[in-house]
Amino acid sequence: MKNIFEIKNVTFSVDGNEKVKNVSFSIENEGDIICLLGPSGIGKTTLLRTIAGLEKINKGEIFLKGKLLSSKDCHVEPENRNISLSFQDNCLFPHYTVEKNIKIAVDKNKNEKKKIIPEFLIKLLDLNHVLKNFPHQISAGEAQRVSLARSLVYEPDLLLLDEPLSNIDQSFKEDIQIQLKKILKNLKITTIVVTHDSYEAFYLGNKCGIILNESLKQFDDPYKVYHYPNSVEIVKFLKRGILISAKVLDDNSLENEELGIIKGKFVKPFPVGSNVKLLLQPEDLIHDDKSNLKFDVVDRRFKGTNFIYTLRTNKGDLIPVFVHSHHIHQHEIDDKFGIKNPIYIDHIVCF
Fold it and tell me: Where are the domains of the chain?
């Protein structure tokens, strides 16, 4: 079976300036959601603009439903791609009301049977109160929701979303994420989302891609991107743990000077005696008030369902530890904090 969408060895450029080089990935199933993560200015928006047909390519190929859209010698115009692109910035028609902006896709496709009813999206995205307003009369968050509604009403073969929820209040954002994912899955709208929010990417995406230093560094299931990062670059970008020095003892254990022996399953084998950098994530260590292995608390972050404690070792390493918020004994700054010993980590990631 052919992939729904495929990028083969494409270099994405703007005005001759190469932004992301030699990119390859595919979307296998209709309705899958792909999330692309990376810092600002790295080329994520350029990638979406090129897929939509707003930029041309000089290297590689882009396919949608088996049809060649872009190559060095082929360029299908944007209006002939059946691709919808929702930008982060306000790209609404300024002389149309909010309602007209949303329903313009319906007016353009009157003869087609639509599965998405505009009124449903208007209610979902809480836009009833601004329907008669013009774009300059609404907030940035409202404009972003209008743009999202318009893109969904169009029901494209491929939906491209550029930071779709960045201007939306956090209290409302999670509800929209849930409903958006449900809509895209139920209607099988294949989607590529560009975001800087890893939590959003991990929730929405069937696959996640990390773009750093002009290349696609990792493209995999969200779980694997988080727990099996393939480079130090990914670890530092995600900021979900720290790297500490350790020495490999055998096929299932290593040793850190202060934490002692750490056992588990190596994701990638290393020769016995190797000096490595071990990835420690907050979930890897278990709090134990009775343990003799104790370090000073230097920070405590309350996350609602949990606390993340930061401990300083005698050598100055700052180690994050996850503790459920119902844990009866809360520790203050400068308290001694125990870690269960010996340490066991399900999957040991080293570099």
Answer: 5-234, 241-348
What CATH architecture applies to the domain 5-234?
A: 3-Layer(aba) Sandwich (3.40)
**Helix/strand/coil (H, E, C) string of the chain?**
CCCCEEEEEEEEEECCEEEEEEEEEEECCCCCEEEEECCCCCCHHHHHHHHHCCCCCCCCEEEECCEEEECCCCECCHHHCCEEEECCCCCCCCCCCHHHHHHHHHHHCCCCCCCCCHHHHHHHCCCHHHCCCCHHHCCHHHHHHHHHHHHHHCCCCEEEEECCCCCCCHHHHHHHHHHHHHHHHHCCCEEEEEECCHHHHHHHCCEEEEEECCEEEEEECHHHHHHCCCCHHHHHHHCCCEEEEEEEEECCEEEECCCEEEEEEECCCCCCCCEEEEEECHHHCCECCCCCCEEEEEEEEECCCEEEEEEECCCCCEEEEEEECCCCCCCCCCCEEEECCCEEEEEECEC
Q: What is the pLDDT of residues 162-190, one digit of tens each?
A: 988 887 888 778 888 888 898 899 889 99
Entry pTM: 0.88
Q: For the segment 271-309, what is each residue's pLDDT rounded down to a tens digit?
A: 999 999 999 999 999 999 999 999 999 999 998 889 999
Q: Which CATH architecture has domain 241-348?
A: Beta Barrel (2.40)
